[in-house]
Amino acid sequence: MRDDFTAVEGLWADVDLPAIASEFGTPVYVYNTAVIKHQYERLVKAFDVPKLALHYACKALTNLEVLRYVRTLGAGLDCVSLNEVRLGLMAGFSASDILYTPSGVSLNEMEEAIALGVGINVDSISLLEQLGQAQTEVPVCVRINPHIMAGGNSKISVGHIDSKFGISIYQLPHVLRIVEATGLKVHGVHMHTGSDILDVAPFLAAADILLDVAHKFKDLDYIDFGSGFKVPYKAGDISTNIEEMGELLSVRFRDFCKNYGREVALCFEPGKFLVSQAGKFLVEANVVKTTPSTVFVGVNSGLNHLIRPMFYESYHHIENVTNPDGKARIYTVVGYICETDTFGTNRQLGEVREGDILSFSNAGAYCMTMASNYNSRVRPAEVLIHEGKSHLVRKRETIEDVISTQVGTGLFEQVNAEIS
Ligand code: LLP
What we know:
31% of the residues lie in helices and 22% in strands. By secondary structure, it is α/β, with parallel strands linked by helices. It has two domains: 229 residues, TIM Barrel; 117 residues, Lyase, Ornithine Decarboxylase, Chain A, domain 1, CATH 2.40.37. Helix 6 links the parallel strand 4 and strand 5. The longest helix has 19 residues. The radius of gyration is 23 Å and the shape is globular. The structure holds ligand LLP. The site of ligand LLP has 20 residues, from helix 11 and helix 12.
């Protein structure tokens, strides 16, 4: 059986994680460009269509150096906020390589995006109508909700009938009416049904729906199938078979182009697929505590740095990288936050001594970008490994960073001076 997790983890074989922990301190996120490149090339190879465009879903990991690296591979960007757009532009992406896909924003915000020159993706009838009435010359993409249930859990399933995302497939006649009445130019159609979608079947079912929709628009330049490929989280874990999906979807897409009468681009917006396994998170074991039922390892991090296990019950593989050959023991790995923040229960790790460095896998996507300052803790540093060398690409925060946006009023100083 194929084991994509182990194959990709092999790209970390030469990286000395304990040395990185000593050089840069912990907690620290470490990203490996070799993994991003490997995944990017796999995806390109999986599709056999005349025009393929990959837009990296940068919400997964927005460090500017990562964006600059992804750009060298030839990718564009999928952005969901104006600040992500600005980061993309700062990283050197041209506006025409950025598609802006926000959810539930005002016309003002869309107009700002138009002023920045990026492509815009419209996810409500109301916004489509307003853009049409604004008589914009700018072509738009329309985000369709195909009403397909797909995704690893309810929080990340976004293409079903109860989801807030996109314009319902049943409202297509209304979309066409607005387009006809306002003269709005639709140059793209889009869908994104969820994240961590394992089976190829829901992708293909949704793709068939989107291709049907596409036939209704005569001026398309691209069809964007979003993303959601499931990545593996441990050895032997199941993941989307990208090669199989690429083959099946390419056949359908080539047929579509033939019937449509011209070649349009096939787009995807991978986030996890490109960067999930490209990241490791290194923490230090602060305390090993044995209770009547459990041996806990308490580490110098918590849900403030990596919330996925607590928020989605996501599995992140954990290893003791400073004692990998130690006698295996069963541990529950927990954070230092003042509420229950369990990273993993019943994990077999080489015996953990206080001071050992633990490494979490799949820490590239939605880890640092979802980090917070809860408990007034600072966010970690980030290190990028490129061609065998490690580079600091974000400094660890300080207390000054944490309070930098607070404004003192002076209102309480006198009373406090009196009581002290
Ligand atoms: N395109 C759109 C419009 C999206 O909303 C997303 C993710 C993607 C592409 C990329 O999907 P991916 O390839 O990463 O599955 N925080 C959650 C995942 C939220 C995904 C949000 N949208 C997690 O940590 O599992």
